[in-house]
Amino acid sequence: MNGSLGGLVGEVQGARSGIGGHCQGARMAPSILWIALAVTCLKLLLVPSYHSTDFEVHRNWLAITHSLPVKQWYLDETSPWTLDYPPLFAWFQKLLALPAPLVDPLIVDVKKGLEYDAPMAVLYMRATVMLSDVLLFFAVHNYACSLPASKRALAAGAVIFSPGLIMVDHIHFQYNGVLLGLLILSIGLIKSGRDVLGGVLFASLLCSKHLFMVAGPVYFVYLLRHYCRGPRKFVRFVVLAASVLSVIGAAFGPFVYYKQIPQVMLRLFPFGRGLTHAYWAPNAWALYNSADKVMSVVARKMGLRVAERAGALTGGLVGESGGHVVLPEVTPLLTALLVLLSLLPCLVRIWRNPRPSEFLRCVAYSYLCGFMFGWHVHEKAILTAVVPLALLAVESPEEAGRYFFLSTVAHFSLLPLLFEPREYPIKVLLTALYCLATSACLQDHFSGSSDNPQSSEPKTANLMSAKSPDRSEVTSGWPEHDAQVSGGEGTEARKQGLLTWLERGYLIGLVFVELYASWVHPALLGGKLPFLPLMLVSTYCALGIAYAWVLQLRLVARTPSKQSMQ
Amino acid sequence: MFARFLGSLARQNVAVEFVFLLAILVRLLVGLSSYSGAGNPPTFGDYEAQRHWMEITLHTPVREWYSETPQNNLTYWGLDYPPLTAYQSYLHGLFVSAFEPEAVGLESSRGYETPSSKLLMRWTVLLSDVLVFFPAAWWFVRAYYGGRSGTEQAWALSILLLQPASLLVDHGHFQYNCISLGFALAAAAAIIQEYEVVGSVLFCLSLNHKQMSMYLAPAFFAHLLGRSFQKRRPLLHVIKLGVIVIATFAVLWAPYLSSAEAVLQVFSRLAPLKRGLWEDHVANFWCTTSMLPVRAFKWKKRLSVEAAARLAGATTVTACLPFMWNEIRRPSKQGLIRGMLISGLAFFLFSFQVHEKSILLPLLPATMLALDSPWVVQWLAPIAAFSMFPLLVRDGQALTYVASQVLYLLIANPPPSGLGDSCVWFRLAFPASLIGVVVIHLGALFLEPPAQYPYLKAAAMTSYGFVHFVLLVLYLNKKVFTSRTQLERTLEKKES
Questions:
Q1: Least CB-CB distance to B11: which of A47, A460, A467?
Q2: CB contact B451 to A (< 8 Å)
Q3: Is residue B459 part of a domain?
Q4: Where is there biased composition of kind Basic and acidic residues (chain A) (predicted)?
């Protein structure tokens, strides 16, 4: 960013470099501000787009927290969308509701505001999501400051432009940006050695959305082994425990006082939900369900008598996935044990050697485990693993390849979330542009030329000349542009690209899956077998995410090599 | 930042693809907003006009499209663009009726607006843009900036494709300027590559889509004439181009060539003399000066329509003559585009019956000059969109306007290179002028105008734009006669 605007921006931002006091804020701030403004423009343009029932859910929560006393928050049942997030999130909603009456008092009216979505109300609600994303920008800025200068903007862009976040928060309507911001801020603080503050932030994250609980063991073991050591380890432990418990106490205290804890817990952990959600999140259970379906069909073909269950095959479409026909039933306890088991290698590694530099990976890995094996996982939960991993992608070409693969599959698996024809091209383009931009920028970064961004295209000259003859003639006039091959960390990546041929083939397969699910299937079969497209998407993506999980597991389980010790 | 990002993409050979996809995405996003005259019976707005033309062209015979018939009531959005617009409406009508025939049913579909038909209509604009303007933009960038780096070309392309005023008028307000502007752009690209015949045909297509393309005609005329004089047989060359132009017109007007009466009927629809010197609030000379408290400037009161038309014609021609003279003597590629900019601005400022949307015509050559004079387009595009704000806010597009303006400002910084002209005072004046824009917006948002001046807000916006346009046209005229760009010098050095 050059020119007067950039200068202006630089001055303004230089003044407040934030928590990350070690950062040269002045250099980083203009690019993060640019990214933040650009993404906010896209979000503003998305204001009139489709919003799901989650819009009404959150509007209702704004109304409940604004208009009712705290005592009523978890009791009110005026709307079917009762408050089912932990108390800190309710307070956050109350904060967002404060200025609402100035815009339109109906927004925060518990009774008259039901199903209210006048354009100004939508704008107000959307604006609260955009504004709360400032925490994400700040957290990413804070984290990116710990990276080498050439990697910062890339890491920040990879997180902030995540099409998953844009689709889920700014079209579908949720507040994941601010929550992930809290998570990244906490990880960034722990990475820079501020363990207590990081722990406190994580506790407040848990008190805002309990789905982030999966990383609890990682935090616990890390803080225990990294912070509570040395001669005064007991004192340190007490300090840590006191600060974390005080956050939890502050959040839940009022409800202990009102004797409502059982009611709150009932809301937070509703029983009676199935193993998988309506649209199967692409995890181990999607594979398990598909295997069950295939086996039951095969068994029937072979003449075996299999229990006929209405809706068993349409499990991908209707609410509860009716029980399994061939394979044994899965219980919540089993899923919890599997999650813990899959976390175990990671916990052992942290126990042996808690390293700040590996903390981010461990947290992201734990969310990936939670996604793979958790009970009743929503497809949106993949963002908790993908978004933090974006920050790792800039570390090495291998990391970049792993991130690109996982993020592409994950974002693809989120596409069915937006099903209206108007948003169809928008969601596809958002995802395609992100894939194009991340793959090109990561590839370019590891080709070694990005440390010198001003000298443009050493490679274009070569590659383009092979493609179009007139371009070579054109570029030959600029001697400084001619091949200036610099080696460095990524020569290998440059030779073979970020992905293996198998990974590439799989990702190209996504295009065919999408073509089938959105075009061929409706054209050929019309309304028949309506579950098939979603089942196909979910199963195919589950393979990719399982593969990505195995890669992460191998990294976490591997004995640390000498190189990574440094 | 954007230029650096494009640099990364260009090194991986995906910059152009990225810019095209981004441009499509932004168009779709702008299209989510409301459009001109949405839910506003009985006459609605431009959206209804375009839909109505689809209905008329689809269901009535070609000969009757421009005439008053029982089925074609000309007082209700009668067709008032040349035949290519009518053919385009016919094609789009076919497209829409393939999915939702009720949307273009004869008579029955007046004021038809459903979410699905809105989507279809938006898609007709998007497809026209992608099929006409996008290739034209790429052709032009390759033809004119072929010697520049991939980053610079991609940046020039993104300026052409993401300039906010066109986005908002075509994909928000609802029009098909992308077609006429796209043909004009392709014509310039062809002529730059010395395909003069092709260029002439393309420019005739542009003229036959919207007569407003005439704003750019003096530049094409002067450039082609100047080029002809450099040929061995100038007269023959001029005649050749003349024949091509006439032939193109003849083909496009073929259904109406049966009688002079039929031609005149179409013609009378295209030149609505009755509608006065300007419309609504326009940032041009006549509208702005008439607001001054000087009796001599109360044009609409003092001049008859004919006298106003004559005066407007004379001033426009006078404003165009200097650059035309220069271009005829020394035609150059850059002279063509600069000429388009000057004549576009001259027509916008002085000609008869100007709409606020006509600023798109000078804006096109300004965006074409993106790498030659980056500061011109960096400045002109946001000001042009600003001068249309009264119109946009009526359409319910204030939010879309803010987002696309900021997005444009974020990408408008050119890639670092020493090849464009620089403008020293730009660095100071540009932020100051943007602050002025913000101040006027805030004032309009929070203050109410006094009762005796109900149009003060719109007047402030258009006058602010007017000052910028006048300064720019004066500066450009000076530039035409004094300097060559560094690029020209570099290229000359290379050639010698």
A1: A460
A2: no
A3: yes
A4: 468-483
CA distance A427 to chain B (A): 9
Rg (CA), chain B: 22
Domain tally for chain B? 1
For A470-492, the pLDDT digits (tens) are 333 333 333 333 333 333 444 44
CB of A368 closer than 8 Å to CB of A544:
no
Q: Which residue has the higher pLDDT, A497 or A317?
A: A497
Residue A560 has pLDDT above 80, yes or no: no
Q: Are B32 and A37 in contact (CB < 8 Å)? A: no
Q: What is the ipTM of this complex?
A: 0.92
- Confidence class of residue A316 from pLDDT cuts 50, 70 and 90? very low
CB contact B415 to A (< 8 Å): yes
Query: For B400, which of A45, A440, A474 is closest by C-beta distance?
Result: A45
Question: What is the per-residue DSSP string for A277-290?
Answer: -SSPPSSHHHHHHH
Reduce the DSSP state of residue A74 to 3 states and report it.
coil
Report pLDDT for B493: 64
Cβ–Cβ under 8 Å, residues B6 and B154: yes
Tokens standing for residue B175: 């029009």
Q: Pick the closest to residue B430 from A507, A261, A7 (CA basis).
A: A7
User: Which of A151-154's residues contact partners 24+ apart within 8 Å by CB, and which partners?
Assistant: A151/A394, A151/A395, A151/A445, A152/A28, A152/A31, A152/A32, A153/A28, A153/A31, A153/A32, A153/A35, A153/B1, A153/B4, A154/A394, A154/A441, A154/A442, A154/A445
- State the alpha helices, DSSP H only, in A46-99: 53-67, 87-97
| Residue pair B338/B223 in contact by the 8 Å Cβ criterion | no
Of the listed ranges A279-283, B248-252, B492-496, the one predicted with least confidence: B492-496
Residue with tokens 């890491």: A155
d(CA B440, CA B459): 11
Pick from B18, B147, B403: CB nearest A474:
B147
Unique residue bearing structure tokens 């693993």: A385
**Exposed, middle or buried, B352 (CB in 10 Å: 0-12/13-18/19+)?**
buried
Contact A437 B13 (CB under 8 A): no
SS3 A24: coil
Show the tokens assigned to B113: 């607006």
Closest CA to B219 of B75, B338, B312, B56: B338
Contact B11 A447 (CB under 8 A): yes
CA distance B429 to chain A (A): 10
Q: In chain B, which residues have their Cβ closer than 8 Å to the Cβ of A463?
A: 13
Its domain, for residue B126, covers 2-38+113-495
Terminal Cα-to-Cα distance of chain B (whole angstroms): 36
**Percentages of chain A per state (helix, strand, coil), in multiples of 5:** 70, 0, 30
* CA–CA dist A370, A366 (Å, integer): 6
Give the integer Cα–Cα distance in Å for B302 and B489: 50
B150 within domain boundaries: yes
Q: Looking at the DSSP assignment, which residues form a beta bridge with residue B354? A: B278
A477 touches chain B (CB under 8 A): yes
Residue B373 lies in a domain: yes
* CA–CA gap between residue A549 and residue A284 (Å, rounded): 10
Given a cut of 90, whether residue B131 has pLDDT beyond it is: yes
- Confidence band for B419, pLDDT divided at 50, 70 and 90: low
Taking a contact as any Cβ pair under 8 Å apart, which residues of chain B between 109 and 148 contact chain A? 115-116, 119, 146-147
* Chain A residues whose beta carbon lies within 8 Å of the beta carbon of residue B428: 4
Instruction: Tell me the β-bridge partners of A411.
Output: none
User: How many other C-beta atoms can be found within 10 angstroms of the C-beta atom of residue A479?
Assistant: 6
Is residue B244 in a domain?
Answer: yes
Q: Which of A318-322, A342-346, A430-434, B400-404 shows the lowest mean pLDDT across its residues?
A: A318-322
Task: Specify the pLDDT at position A473.
Answer: 34
Cα separation, A143 vs A22, whole angstroms:
11
Residue at token pair 């590629």: B333
